[in-house]
Specification:
The structure holds two protein chains of two kinds. Chain A is mainly alpha-helical. Chain A has helices at about 5-25, 25-50, 55-85. Chain A is elongated and about 50 Å long. Chain B has three domains: about 1-90, NADH-ubiquinone/plastoquinone oxidoreductase chain 6, subunit NuoJ (Four Helix Bundle (Hemerythrin (Met), subunit A), Up-down Bundle), CATH 1.20.120.1200; about 95-140; about 150-189. Chain B is about 75% helix and about 0% strand. Classes of the chains: A mainly alpha, B mainly alpha. Chains A and B meet through α1, α2 and α3 of A and α1, α2, α3, α5 and α6 of B.
């Protein structure tokens, strides 16, 4: 399978993730879209690793997964904390930092 | 002849997984119910694990399924059900102007990426055809000695990348502590 197919596919997945972040107003769905973007980039890493016959890409994916796991734990805790105060996860109604 | 068949199987599987991944991703951002969004994201993640197997990376594929489709998505579903979100589609609807602006940004981004990839395709430097990967089934090294196997990754991870590995463990500890503190304490508004 030529590398360019994998690059196009992960570009499309990344674009869908960006669309989710920009179009949705539910903080949890926005968060899931961010996960989708991370995974699109991971696919690029693995595709390049296979193309250049180099393990570094796969090892970097491993570290991306570690960071993503920590990010999800902290981010979901933040959403829970915000929900306790505001009783909503819709980002239009969370505007404390807006002036 | 077996090589030809392997390439064909790879191509078929690639397009099958592509359709599944893209369709589930689109359904994820379009579905009103966040529980269904999470389940469609899980489908996308499984398709991505299939790509990793196709790309001769069985370790990444298995870790991906265990960590993403297992742990992270369970956490997502857990939080969605914990918060017990009320269905309110009216709050999901943004202003027309903002939606148009968002769509414009997405189109520009996709056009940029397509121009970049297409440009490198035309000039033909290094993003051309990948030689078919040997050892797809048994995971053995191919003629150039490349193997995406777990042993090779483990050796690299515990020699060359030992410092990032240890830092990653500290990062996970910080993440655990931060999540517990954030979710436990009652924030004063």
């Amino acid at each position: 399978m030529p590398l360019v197919y994998y690059l196009l596919l992960s570009a499309l997945l990344f674009g869908i993730g960006v669309a989710g972040v920009l179009l949705r107003r539910n903080a949890i769905v926005i968060f899931m879209s961010i996960e989708l973007m991370l995974n699109a980039v991971n696919l690029t890493f693995v595709a390049f690793a296979a193309h250049f016959k180099n393990l570094e890409g796969q090892i970097f994916v491993f570290f991306v997964m570690v960071v993503a796991a920590a990010e999800v734990a902290v981010g979901l805790a933040l959403i829970v904390a915000i929900f306790r105060v505001k009783q909503t996860v819709f980002v239009d109604e969370i505007n404390l930092m807006k002036w | 002849m077996t090589l030809d068949m392997a390439i064909n199987l790879q191509t078929v599987l690639f397009f099958l997984f592509s359709v599944i991944a893209l369709g589930a991703a689109i359904m994820m951002i379009l579905h009103r119910n966040p529980v269904y969004s999470a389940i469609f994201l899980i489908v996308t993640l499984f398709a991505l694990a299939g790509f990793y197997v196709l790309l001769n990376a069985p370790f990444v594929a298995s870790v991906h399924v265990i960590v993403y489709a297992g742990a992270i998505m369970v956490l997502f579903l857990f939080v969605i059900m914990l918060l017990n979100l009320k269905q309110d589609p009216s709050r999901e609807r943004g202003k027309i102007l903002r939606r148009a602006f968002a769509s414009l940004i997405i189109l520009i981004l996709l056009a940029e990426i397509c121009v970049l990839i297409g440009g490198s395709l035309l000039t033909g430097n290094s993003v051309a055809a990948t030689p078919p990967i040997a050892g797809l089934v048994d995971g053995s090294a191919d003629s150039t000695g490349f193997s995406g196997g777990t042993a090779a990754i483990g050796r690299q991870l515990f020699t060359t990348y030992i410092l990032p590995f240890e830092i990653a463990s500290v990062l996970l500890l910080v993440g655990i502590v931060g999540a517990v503190i954030l979710a436990k304490r009652k924030l004063t508004s």
